[in-house]
Write a structure and sequence with these properties.
single chain; alpha/beta; Rossmann fold; five-stranded parallel sheet; 26% strand
Length: 544
């Protein structure tokens, strides 16, 4: 029996779908001790992590391995003076050492701050200074140690530096120190309400904000894994995410292990769709989750047969209908969309037992009271656009919803204004109760007295064969207030010209109501993006 049943109560409908869900856990719940170590003690040889990289190296780690290695690293960190309440930044890409290290931090009650290796020196300086980092543990690759050294110097920090595998100037070698450390660790007292993780947001509208999650966060991902990704007992799940992103917590550790599945990790730098599909087939991955960009690459490069794959999911941005259709036609698998934020876990999804709707965000997770409200806080009628908000049940802020912003109580109170959590995302609900994404409220275009969501225009644009990427914004217009403008990255096989611009306009506008027509097109070599790959519409608007 999966260990998750120990910590929740679930009520299912006749289709096996989730009707009701609640959590029950001790006040000192700690995922590393109470899930990972507990499984290790009962089933030491149970497979936990299957890892491979592009160089052909591969490892299979059991829960006993995880317990032993995390204890060793915890002892190294503790002996260096790190203790409960401190903050440690992890820049470990997809290396298996991430799993050992993040569990060690959980055991010590130290807040883990995952970060991507793609950050620039200035990004590291910002994070080190803002979070008052006590230590950094990083990869030896991609020039990360040099950037960290420079950032620490510029930040004026005296934080401790560790690097895995290799000896690096100014860094201690964590791998070598862990090999010599004891694998026996006495449990450090922690509380379920203590800070466990902190992620920096993607910063699409301003500087990244630090978002805290407590030790109940892993339990809130039971629904993520069991009913959205639909991992199976004894199965193997692959989520395509580097560990620096919040999506790694959604799909590479917590919910999957709680629900009895092992985690597949493919460590790569440059994405190759065919190699990804090869890994899926070679290791027997049966559930898969990836951002829309990955599905676009896979579909456009041609899909090989993947007979072992049973369930697929996506989140992070919207996926064009044409990709859904082509993937389904080739594999027979519906890509189940889901929705959440850095500040939350899964809020909306096409869940197990539910008839999935292509392109819809799905319905609310039974664990949350998710509603649509107007910007003024009032109700909205069916079919009308409103803001996605979370209304706490019985006046309590629920597990899985963040516990605070880093040194920004004012912003925390603002997003919780009126006693509800405001996501800032706009959607509408159809006649069957499914939510449909409309855009960020700040991105909605007001043209000629109408409100237009950029996503629906972008979907139509992506159907044109010349369009590789696009982003739609509203720009000042004397007649309409705002006009709809599309920024387009054209394919290499297409010559940018007035003729191409006219062809795209005519093709798309024939499929759109007149008030949604694209009035302007600008071809660009690339779109401005955050480090996580999200398009910065704010920057596009500011250029006008």
């Amino acid at each position: 029996m999966s260990i998750y049943k120990k910590y929740c109560t679930e009520v299912l409908d006749e289709n096996g779908g989730l009707k009701e869900f609640s959590l029950n856990y001790p006040e000192n719940f700690n995922f590393a001790y109470d899930v990972v170590d507990a499984i290790a003690d009962e089933e030491p040889d149970r497979k936990a992590l299957v890892w491979c990289n592009t160089e052909g190296e591969e490892h299979v780690f059991t829960f006993a391995d995880l317990k032993r290695e995390s204890n060793k690293i915890a002892n190294v960190l503790s002996s260096a003076g790190l203790k409960k309440g401190m903050k440690v930044m992890l820049v470990l890409k997809r290396h298996y050492e991430y799993w050992f290290t993040v569990l060690a931090l959980h055991k010590l009650g130290i807040t883990a701050i995952p970060a991507t290796h793609m950050l620039l020196v200035s990004d590291y300086v910002y994070r080190i200074q803002m979070a008052r980092i006590d230590a950094v543990i990083c990869t030896p690759y991609n020039d990360v140690p040099a950037r960290i050294r420079s950032a620490v110097q510029q930040a004026g920090s005296n934080c401790i530096l560790w690097c895995i595998k290799n000896d690096e100037m100014a860094f201690r070698n964590l791998t070598r120190e862990a090999e010599a450390a004891s694998d026996v660790l006495e449990r450090v007292p922690t509380k379920a309400t203590d800070n466990m993780l902190m992620y920096f947001t993607s910063g699409t509208t301003g500087y990244p904000k630090g978002v805290f999650h407590d030790f109940t966060y892993p339990l809130a991902h039971i629904i993520t894994a069991k009913y959205w990704q639909q991992v199976s007992e004894g199965g193997l799940h692959l989520t395509v995410s580097e560990t620096g992103w919040g999506k790694a917590s959604w799909g590479k550790i917590y919910g999957q292990w709680l629900c009895g599945a092992a985690v597949m990790v493919y460590d790569f730098d440059n994405f190759d769709p065919r190699q990804m599909c090869y890994v899926i087939n070679k290791y027997g991955v049966d559930s898969f989750c990836a951002p829309p960009t990955i599905y676009r690459y896979i579909v456009r490069k041609g899909l090989p047969a993947m007979p072992g794959l049973k369930h697929v999911a996506t989140a992070g941005e919207m996926l064009a209908p044409e990709i859904f259709k082509k993937f389904y036609e080739t594999t027979g698998l519906m890509i189940n969309e889901g929705y959440g934020q850095t500040e939350t876990v899964l809020l909306l999804a096409n869940l197990k037992g539910m008839k999935a709707k292509e392109g819809a965000l799905g319905k609310p997770s039974p664990f949350y009271n998710v509603q649509l409200r107007s910007r003024e806080g009032g109700p909205v009628a069916p079919g009308e656009v409103g803001e996605i908000v979370v209304v706490p049940r019985e006046g309590a802020r629920q597990e899985g919803v963040f516990s605070g912003y880093l040194y920004d109580d004012a912003q925390y109170e603002y997003v919780w204004r009126g006693g509800v959590f405001h996501t800032g995302d706009a959607a509408y609900i159809d006649e069957d109760g499914y939510f449909w994404f409309y855009g960020r409220f700040d991105d909605i275009i007001k043209t000629g007295g109408f409100r237009v969501g950029p996503y629906e225009i972008e979907n139509v644009l992506m159907e044109h064969p010349a369009v590789v990427e696009c982003s739609v914004v509203g720009v000042p217009d004397q007649l309409r207030g705002q006009a709809i403008k599309a920024f387009i990255v054209a394919g290499n096989d297409y010559k940018v010209s007035k003729a191409l611009e006219l062809d795209i306009k005519n093709s798309c506008n024939n499929k759109l109501a007149e008030y949604k027509w694209i009035r302007q097109i600008e071809f660009v070599d690339e779109l401005p993006k955050t480090i996580s790959g999200k398009i910065r519409k704010t920057e596009l608007r500011e250029k006008q």
